[in-house]
């Protein structure tokens, strides 16, 4: 699914989302990653939602988001209540959606200047 034709110069954005890859600006990523408007953390070592724990959500929290989007692949898969609580207790909103929806939502939020961070499972 093509998401963007133009490249804004001031932030990272998702250009394309497929089942096996997501294109951030002009770079095609084939492994799980974390994305903010300013930074992409490639090769995030988490492959499934079930692998989420306090250690590997630390990379998300370090980016100081106001909202986190979890792109869980082709289907929505919710993390444990304990993981959700890690975000909510810090006042960080969290939304769980498939990768295509997370891609679209990320682009809208960062275009509005929101401190959104997306974590994609590939």
Short structural summary:
Helices cover 24% and strands 25% of the residues.
Can you describe what's shown?
InterPro entries: MTH938-like_sf, NDUFAF3/AAMDC. Pfam families: DUF498. This is Xcc1710-like domain-containing protein. It is built from three helices and eight strands, in the order βββββαβαβαβ. The chain has 122 residues and is an alpha/beta fold. The chain has a single domain, classed as Hypothetical Protein Mth938, Chain: A (3-Layer(aba) Sandwich). Strands 5-4-8-6-7 form a five-stranded mixed β-sheet, with helices on both faces. It has a three-stranded antiparallel β-sheet with strand order 1-2-3, with helices on one face. The longest helix has 13 residues. The relative contact order is 0.24.
Would you report the number of β strands? 8
The CATH class:
Alpha Beta
Note the total helix count.
Answer: 3
Strand order of the largest sheet: 5-4-8-6-7
At CATH's second level, what is the architecture? 3-Layer(aba) Sandwich
Q: What's the order of the H and E elements?
A: EEEEEHEHEHE
- Could you name the CATH topology? Hypothetical Protein Mth938, Chain: A
Question: Helix proportion of residues, in percent?
Answer: 10-25%
- Assigned CATH superfamily: MTH938-like
Structural category: alpha/beta
Q: What is the percentage of strand-forming residues?
A: 15-25%
For the termini, the CA-CA separation is 16 Å
Low-confidence stretches: 1-5
How many domains? The number is 1
What is the radius of gyration computed over CA atoms, rounded to a whole number of angstroms? 13 Å
Largest sheet: 5 strands, mixed
User: Can you tell me the overall shape?
Assistant: globular
Mean pLDDT rating: 93
